[in-house]
C-alpha cells in the first residue's frame, strides 16, 4: 500500500510489477468477507500530508493534536527526511485506532493507502511534455479474500469509485517536495532534525501550525499570487498545502531575502 515513484527514463518495471493498463482485475471488499477488517491491524500505514489534513478535519482536531495522538515518525524511503506513520493501538491485535466494530470509522476520509488497495500507484515524474503518466499495479495481501470475489474493475474505475483523484493530486505535489527533501544539499549540512528540517516538517504535516507561522503572511506578501488566490489560501487548508511547493521552490522560508 505504497505510493511508488518511477524515474522518467525507467521504462521497465521489475518482473513482479506489471502495469494493469486498461485490463480488468477482480476485487470486492465488503462486510461479508471472512477477512473483513483483517487488513486494519498490525499495519505499517504511511500517512501523507493530505491524509493528515483530511483526518484532522474529520475528527475536528488540530493537525498538531492529530500528529501527537495518532502518529509516529519513522525513517522511510527518503534517506534525508522522516516519514509519518499511523500508530496502531497497543492491544494484542494492534488495530488501527480508527477501526470500529462495523469497520472503518473514518471511511470517507481514510488515508490514500487504504483507498488505493488492492492497487499500487506509480508516477513517472518527468514525462516528456504533457500530463504526468501514472501506472497501477495489482497487489495482494495473502489473507485478503476480496480477490476471490466476482466484481471486475479497471484501474480507472477503481480510482473513480474510491474518490482517489484529489488524493493522487495532492500526493503528487507532496512527492515532488519529498524528492527535493531527499537531496542532502537541501539541509545545508544541518543533518536530520536540524532547524530547517523541523520547519519543513511543520510546513508539510502540521497545516494549522503552518497557517500561524509568522512567515506565511510575509511569503504571501512577496508572492505574485492574485488576490482571489490569496484569499482562498487564507481560509482553505488544501490551498495552503498546495503553495508549500511554490514556497520551497522559490525560496527557503528561513533564508534571508
Ligand atoms: S483483507 Fe481484503 S477483502 Fe478483507 S477487509 Fe481487507 S481489503 Fe477487504
Ligand atoms: S483508516 Fe480505516 S481503512 Fe485505514 S487502516 Fe484504519 S480502519 Fe482500516
Please tag this protein with its features.
257 residues; alpha+beta; 2 domains; three-stranded mixed beta sheet; three-stranded antiparallel beta sheet; 10 helices; 13% strand; globular; disordered N terminus; binds iron/sulfur cluster
SSE layout and pairings?
Elements (H helix, E strand, L loop, with lengths): L2 E4 L18 E2 L19 E2 L1 H11 L3 H8 E4 L8 E4 L12 E2 L2 E2 L7 H5 L2 E6 L8 E6 L13 E2 L1 H7 L3 H17 L13 H11 L1 H6 L1 H9 L4 H9 L1 H14 L7
Parallel strand pairs: 1-8
Antiparallel strand pairs: 2-10, 3-5, 4-5, 6-7, 8-9
Helix pairs in contact: 1-2, 5-10, 9-10
Task: Explain briefly what this protein structure is.
With 257 residues, the protein is of the alpha+beta class. The protein contains ten helices and ten strands.
